[in-house]
Specification:
globular; 262 residues; 9-stranded mixed beta sheet; 9 strands; alpha/beta; 27% helix
Length: 262
Amino acid sequence: MMPSSTLPISYLSEDWHIHSIASGHGTLDSVTDIAREAAKRGMKLIGISDHGPATLGGTALSYFRNLPLCEPRRFGVEIRYGAEANILNGNGTLDIPDEILEKLDYCIVSMHHPIYKGSAGASEFGVATQGAYIRSTYPANTVGTSSENTSAYIQAMSHPKVKILGHCDDGRFPVDYDELVKAAAVIGVTPELNNVSLSPDSYRLDCRANATRLLEACAKYNCPILLSSDSHGRKHIGEVAYAMELIKEIGFPLTLIKNLPT
């Protein structure tokens, strides 16, 4: 199912949230496969942001250590090598150590169920960085309080290589969007509008309502956003039709979109 046919489908020139086979789920496509498809779609830049090691079957730390050695351009497409790091707890601890993050081009920080544990997971970092799957005893609906989760995001954004705030629209991790966006604007981190979150079959909770609140806060505080496909593999890279549908519905200022489709 796609959005209204009145919305033209165009690809992003720059898509910073893409996963390869290294993420351990959702695709068998390599970076080469993704870059080849990006070239076919006329894209100029792709960001490879594979999941951190706390994700089930996720990427080993040795993979991220080797990314700086990879080719910066394939098939005429520029490639940036980053990570989608997991926020583990209420302290904003990430599952990728600072010394590895410093060598990457950028980092997205996100909360995922059942990895994020709020304040209950404050001592889990040593386990997570070894690639273990952290199982949560929290129910699948919500984890942590709005205040606690907002603080965790803000602390996670403090690392200088953290550039993007990943799918903070998931109602399982409630946040205060005013406080979160104000902090992001000051720190210089860009919230994303995640196309997967807004798809009809999204597994995340209350994303459309929360994404609307996020956009309203971004407009209020003049905070730019980034459109992201969150594609696992090449199939959906550069695709943001659901995100653009919401942008147009609420009249969000196009001037605040860093990578508006051309």
